[in-house]
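User: I'm putting together notes for a lab meeting next week and I want to include a structural view of one of the chains we've been expressing. I don't have a solved structure, so I'd like a prediction I can at least talk through. The sequence is below, exactly as it appears in our construct file.
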Amino acid sequence: MKKSYRPLQSRLLPLCLCLGLVALCTLLVAPAPLSAQEEDDIHLSRVIDLLGGREAVFGIISSDRSLNNARSLARSGLDFIIIDMEHGPWSPEILRTFLLGMTDRQRTVANGHLQMAVTPLVRVPQNGAEMMSSIVKQALDVGAFGVMFPIIENRAQALNAVSSMRYPRPLGSDIREPRGRRGRSPGIAAWFWGIGGGEYYRRADVWPLDPGGNLLAIIQIESPIGVARIEEIITTPGVGVIFIGPSDLSTQMGYGDNPGAPEVEQAIQTVLAACLRHDVPCAITTGSGSVEERLRQGFRMVTVGGDGGITAGTSRALELGRSAAGR
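Assistant: Thanks for the context. Below is the predicted structure for the 327-residue chain, given as structure tokens.
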């Protein structure tokens, strides 16, 4: 029997219609790139965006600087990661590689803006008594969105911390103080953030002192001296978060590795009360057994795990925390 062939045009028409429908749906579903003004209104730091919206945020402290860990954490469902360089070797080059490993171009294209899903923050090795500004500068110059400062015990140390993170602001600015001491060489950080050097200078300031800032100054209270002086520390302009370290606090108070001692908990509650009075986000380490209670108490930034990536325990703590926070 002779085969019958439909004209080529009639066979291609349904295919073209289908392809056209797919293209139309793609345009309708995929977010259009934001305008310059819309992009400017979004903090590049997602954790600042969330804290500014009075949301609780969840993360981990990790000293695993491998590329595999960076890639895994970039899509972990966490809000932030604190890259721990206090208890591990300080290496700006390794930090730079880790940050690049967290770059998720697929998410950037899908979302239509530059905000990373997980905000990378760095805990530096210096404590309040040392305060080497060069280390802070190097952490920021490779692209970190914030710095955690261990064992801050007074206002002078808190001021030093904030100043080390800031560029000197223009003459017309009404937030020139605390005076910035960071040297200006934004090439690497601006490239990592995906913006120009001039825009980086403008947007790389501490929040909430600068409402449009994208850098977070995280002050750790880990000693009874810091607890006693929490009022002068927390009222230092530029402080973004107060982070209580229960383990070091209990050790400094003489209770060894017993952060559950009643006296330690009383000190924790003293710091938390100051944060709530001054509307400064308060942070603490938690796990699946404590995250819900800490959120009920008023903590707004919690870690739910450590090294080992997203373990079963971390996943469970994150699930419980998000549910308790309504997220």
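A couple of points you could mention at the meeting. Residues 1-31 have pLDDT under 50 and may be disordered. The CA atoms of residues 287 and 304 lie 5 Å apart.

User: Perfect, that's what I needed.
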